[in-house]
Design goal:
Length: 284
């Protein structure tokens, strides 16, 4: 999807049409529900919380073209929270990077879509799953782009669990030290991890203040407010010479009432009775 842009390089596609983004977000959630149900795999709650962010990013923010997935001038997106790979697959299929029939084989023998984000899938830049690797790779890609005189941007979508890892904080320090303003980190800040709520594992607050102290330009946004997300991404980079961090406050399991804000949503899959109920709650 190559988006028409204004004189400042900002996307003009679908501007002022948040309903289109909401429909795409609902489709992403529905695909994730069906994929994880068929494969009886986990991490549905982690997928549902970032659907709105992906819908906005892939509706004009990212400079990408599914017909030219290896375009050297494309923006890159690394999904640090690779366990939510089905959400990335869902939006990539919707955007034409591969046939949507591939969804049928997610997490199943002979299928083309692995349980975690895999670079073998068109549109996926890097295989992820072990937390703490995504931002480190994204920093290296941003540094290489600047060294080579490239104008593309590197986005990295991480979880709050990613931010418990020391390698993530090494990357945070390195990016600020080198002034990588072509780098954008987005944290899906749903505050529920595999084994408990954030305050029971490692509390990150005051998170935004910490990031600013480390040299990042930071904005906080409701990660389910389509218009607010669009407005935030339109202002990138937030400050010249500084990497940008979007702290997106989200709800784990967003859209399914009995999954929201639950630890159980991290690993559980929907059963045959729950799937139609969950789809109905998101209008699908």
């Amino acid at each position: 999807m190559t988006s028409p842009r204004d004189e400042n390089g900002r996307s003009k596609s679908g501007a002022g049409q948040p309903d289109l983004r909401r429909e795409l977000a609902a489709d992403i959630r529905a695909h994730c529900m069906r994929m994880t149900h068929r494969g009886q795999s986990g991490h549905l709650g982690s997928m549902l919380s970032l659907a709105d962010i992906l819908a906005v990013l892939y509706s004009g923010v990212l400079r990408i073209d599914p017909q030219r997935p290896d375009d050297p001038d494309r923006d890159r997106l690394i999904l640090g929270k690779g366990h939510a790979g089905a959400a990335l697959y869902a939006v990539l299929g919707e955007r034409g990077f591969f046939p949507k029939e591939w969804y049928e084989g997610y997490y199943r023998d002979g299928g083309k879509l692995m349980g975690h984000a895999s670079h073998h899938v068109p549109g996926v830049e890097f295989s992820t799953g072990s937390l703490g690797h995504g931002l480190s790779v994204a920093v290296g890609m941003a540094l290489a782009a600047r060294h080579d005189g490239r104008k593309h941007r590197v986005f990295c979508l991480v979880s709050d669990g990613d931010c418990n890892e020391g390698s993530t904080w090494e990357a945070i320090m390195f990016a600020a030290r080198h002034g990588l303003d072509n780098l954008v980190a987005i944290v899906d800040y749903n505050r529920v991890q595999a084994l408990g709520a954030m305050e029971e594992v490692i509390e990150m607050e005051p998170f935004a203040e910490k990031l600013r102290a480390f040299g990042w330009a930071t904005q906080t946004v409701d990660g389910h407010d389509i218009s607010a997300l669009e407005a935030t991404f339109e202002t990138l980079p937030f400050a010249p010479g500084r990497p940008s961090w979007v702290l997106a406050r989200t709800v784990k399991g967003k859209g399914v009432s009995w999954l929201e804000n639950t630890v159980a949503s991290h690993y559980g899959a929907l059963n045959d009775e729950q799937l139609p109920r969950a789809l109905a709650e998101i209008g699908r």
